[in-house]
Design goal:
The structure holds 2 protein chains of 2 kinds. In chain A, helix 3 packs antiparallel against helix 4 and helix 3 packs antiparallel against helix 6. The termini of chain A are far apart. Chain A is mainly α. By secondary structure, chain B is α+β, with helices and mostly antiparallel strands. Chain B has 3 domains: about 90 residues; about 60 residues, 2-Layer Sandwich (CRO Repressor); about 55 residues, bsu07140 like domains (CRO Repressor). Helix content of chain B is about 45%, strand content about 15%. Chain B has 8 helices and 8 strands. Chain B has a 4-stranded antiparallel beta sheet. In chain B, strands 6-5-7-8 form a 4-stranded antiparallel beta sheet. The longest helix of chain B is centred in the first third of the chain and has 24 residues. Classes of the chains: A mainly alpha, B alpha+beta.
């Protein structure tokens, strides 16, 4: 029995580590309506396309909140550069919404989506 | 991203993974490692360090690298254990550098091994006169094995026609003031015998003893008391 645990425990530990290091794609999925990052990003894009700047600001705030909820749980399995790029992108998006720059806001949103999609690669 | 917390978690992953992998690779001592084993060890350690603190990339690729290098080393160990040819290819083979008292310069040259290196390794073994050496072999782990000429070899018990003492391992009967009953039994002695031995040396309680070690072959008991009568503080003049 002791021999069994001598092999099983290290194998379980290694399996746990493997799962943890690859959990980014699972953990970035929304657990509540408040942390649905892709949904709010899409809402921002649609509002910018309609040039509905108030709605865009509101969805952008929700987008930042969603990111604050998602980032702590994915930080162990994704790389720092992608997370930083999303954070910088969110700040730039805020600035372009303030200045009501449609094309730059859409370009930044697309950039954020690209980083989001490749978080775990 | 809480970088400190991420480093803590990744360090735990690296540490425990390295612990499991090191146990998997076996119990070779550092002194027995070949140059190849040594380089493999450094590489695996370096990957583990990167896994721990390099937050620029995900932990997973580093972990895969660690696993691949460990599996590669394990594969080489298994192949070397099963095949002599593989062992020669991967681990190298012993090379004779002194034969019948003569230096083999060609063999030394192929290893880029100088006479200075040879003399140094001989000195490390307490041999200061190369003329006393009959054979010397450079082992695959870099150690030098030396056979002295018959007239310079130490006399053995057989040469002196003496009756050798019985061998065997010493057993710790008392450690840190505590008697170890299972070792008493294994050494074939009992509590009463131990108490008598202690009393003969003026010790009334096992708690006064730091270490008592008994060698069943020679039937000698070594006792070290906490009170050594030696001052450990240095007096300045």
């Amino acid at each position: 029995m002791r021999q069994f645990w001598m092999y099983t425990i290290p194998l379980l530990v290694l399996a746990g580590f493997m799962l943890m290091m690859n959990s980014g794609d699972i953990l970035k999925k929304p657990l509540t309506t408040q942390d649905d990052f892709p949904y709010y990003l899409q809402e921002v894009e649609q509002a910018v396309e309609r040039e509905d700047w108030d709605a865009a600001h509101s969805h952008s705030a929700n987008l930042s909140t969603a990111w604050e909820k998602v980032s702590p749980r994915i930080q162990f399995s994704v790389d720092k550069d992608e997370m930083k790029a999303i954070e910088v992108g969110l700040s730039r998006l805020q600035a372009f919404l303030q200045s009501q720059d449609r094309s730059q806001a859409l370009a930044t949103a697309a950039e954020i989506r690209e980083h989001w999609d490749h978080l775990n690669e | 991203m809480n970088e400190g917390l991420v480093v803590v978690v990744r360090s735990i992953i690296a540490f425990l993974t390295l612990l499991v992998f090191a146990r998997l690779l076996g119990k070779q001592l550092v002194s027995q490692l070949t140059f190849f084993d040594y380089v493999m060890g450094i590489t695996i350690g370096s990957i583990a360090a990167t896994l721990s603190v390099d937050l620029e990339s995900r932990a997973w690729p580093h972990w895969v690298g660690l696993a691949v290098w460990t599996i590669a080393v394990l594969a080489i160990q298994i192949a070397s254990a099963k095949s002599n040819v593989a062992a020669k290819v991967f681990m190298g083979e012993p090379v004779v550098v002194i034969s019948k008292g003569k230096l083999l310069e060609d063999a030394m040259g192929r290893m880029r091994y100088t006479a200075g290196n040879l003399l140094e390794q001989l000195r490390n073994q307490g041999i200061f006169d190369i003329s006393t050496v009959e054979f010397a072999v450079m082992e695959s782990d870099g150690q030098l094995s030396v056979l002295l000429k018959p007239e310079h070899r130490p006399a053995t018990v057989q040469d002196l026609a003496l009756q050798p003492q019985k061998g065997g391992m010493s057993a710790q009967l008392i450690y840190d003031g505590q008697v170890i009953p299972e070792n008493l039994q294994a050494a074939g002695v009992d509590d009463a015998w131990l108490t008598r031995q202690l009393q003969e040396q003026g010790i009334n309680n096992a708690a006064e003893v730091f270490l008592a070690s008994y060698h069943p072959g020679s039937q000698t008991l070594y006792i070290d008391r906490y009170e050594d009568g030696i001052s450990t503080t240095t007096k300045h003049p």
